[in-house]
Every structure is written in structure tokens, then in C-alpha cells.
Design goal:
Blueprint: E1 6-10, H1 24-33, E2 37-44, E3 50-52, E4 57-58, E5 61-62, H2 77-84, E6 89-94, H3 100-109, E7 116-120, H4 123-132, E8 138-142, H5 150-153, E9 158-161, H6 168-176, E10 180-183, H7 189-198, E11 202-205, H8 208-214
Parallel strand pairs: 1-2, 1-11, 2-6, 6-7, 7-8, 8-9, 9-10, 10-11
Antiparallel strand pairs: 2-3, 4-5
């Protein structure tokens, strides 16, 4: 399907439970399945280190207060960008504020001008990114109906609503505004096909293998 949506693994190939999510092994597996790229999460650790992880605590350690040597088992943002920036679409989700300068510097360092979006649930993070750089490809994530207006307010290039919020009308509104729509986390084949038929620009799924199989 030449007009198929972008196919992205959620935290890599999250359905493959034998491989830890948000790790290079999981990212590689999603790409091996045939995904165009993947979504992953970034947090700020103590000392200003940017680590790839979803939860605020890992193995009983509070990430925001941890020293880098306490988190050596977590991938670093720059290592992920260095490895994948030129060969995959990256949805880089910022879980907390305070990462804006670091992500902008990293995007410049790894010459990322397209095939990425820096996303967040936090409108203030997205607006700060857009204030600092009009070139950045930013996305606002939402999982509640009252958050949907944020995609207009933040001036983000991408609206990233939970699949339960997506309607044909919303897709049309986003496209009419000259923006793109990614949706998550879609693990049902019929739903994948329906969303593609509505014209979403990308689908994020835990089941990267099913996602690719659906469109090949």
C-alpha cells in the first residue's frame, strides 16, 4: 500500500515481552518486523543526563534524583539518536519539562531535520520547544477529550491523540490545518485498517509485527 500510514512500534516492539521495552534490542526488533520507526520515552536524570525510560522510578530508583552511575542499565538519548537518526522515524516523547534545550542540541548534533517528532503530553513543553525553534517538528499527545484543543493551541506540527479520540472529523480538521495526526496505541487489526482508511498519518502499536503484517 503506497499510501499507507507511517508504522511505528510503541517503545520498540513492546508486545515482544522477552525483550525489554525502550531498549535498542526492542527498537531493532520493531525495525526488523518492518516498522518505519518507533516511539520511545525520555526522562531527565540527576546531573542533567537524558535517559530512555517510561516510568519515573526504575528498580526502586527515582530517575530524576539518580546519578548517572545508578542508571547505567538505561539507554542514553544521544546513543539512541546516534544509532537510529538516519535510518528510522523517531517519535521522541519527553516525559518531563527541562529537556527542551538538550533535545534541541541533540537534534542539531545528529542533523535531524525530518523523519522525527518530539512529542509530549505537556503543552508547556511543546510550546517551549516551538518558542525556541520554529523548525522543530513537535507533537502534542492527548488521551482525554478535553485535551484535544491543545493541538491548535500549541502550534504543533503533529496531533497525537489516543485512538479512542480519533474520528474522521478530527482527521479532517487536523489535515485542513496543515498538520499531521499520529495515533496510539493501536493493537487491533480492524482498528488499524479503519484508521488508515480515515487517513491518519501514522499508527503506533505495541504489536509491531501485526502492524506491519496488516499493511503488507
Amino acid at each position: 500500500m503506497s499510501d499507507r500510514p507511517l508504522l511505528l512500534g510503541h517503545r520498540g516492539a513492546r508486545a515482544s515481552t522477552s525483550i525489554p521495552e525502550n531498549t535498542p534490542a526492542s527498537f531493532d526488533f520493531a525495525l526488523e518486523h518492518g516498522c518505519d520507526g518507533f516511539e520511545f520515552d525520555v526522562r531527565l536524570a540527576g546531573g542533567g543526563c537524558c535517559v530512555v525510560c517510561h516510568d519515573p522510578t526504575v528498580d526502586g530508583i527515582t530517575v530524576s534524583r539518580a546519578d548517572a552511575n545508578q542508571l547505567t542499565h538505561l539507554p542514553l538519548l544521544d546513543d539512541v539518536l546516534q544509532r537510529y537518526a538516519q535510518r528510522a522515524f523517531l517519535d521522541i516523547e519527553l516525559k518531563v519539562a527541562g529537556l527542551e534545550s538538550k533535545i534541541l542540541n541533540s537534534l542539531r548534533e545528529y542533523r535531524m531535520e525530518q523523519d522525527y517528532v518530539v512529542s509530549s503530553f505537556l503543552p508547556e513543553v511543546v510550546m517551549e520547544l516551538k518558542t525556541r525553534s520554529q523548525k522543530i517538528q513537535a507533537g502534542i499527545i492527548c488521551d482525554k477529550p478535553e485535551q484535544l484543543a491543545c493541538w491548535r493551541e500549541t502550534n504543533a506540527e503533529y496531533a497525537i491523540p489516543h485512538h479512542s479520540l480519533v474520528t474522521l472529523k478530527l482527521v479532517k480538521e487536523v489535515h485542513d490545518a496543515g498538520r499531521k495526526l499520529l495515533t496510539w496505541t493501536v493493537n487491533d487489526q480492524k482498528q488499524m485498517l479503519r484508521l488508515a482508511d480515515w487517513g491518519v498519518d501514522g499508527i503506533i502499536s505495541d504489536d509491531s509485527q501485526l502492524l506491519v503484517k496488516t499493511f503488507t
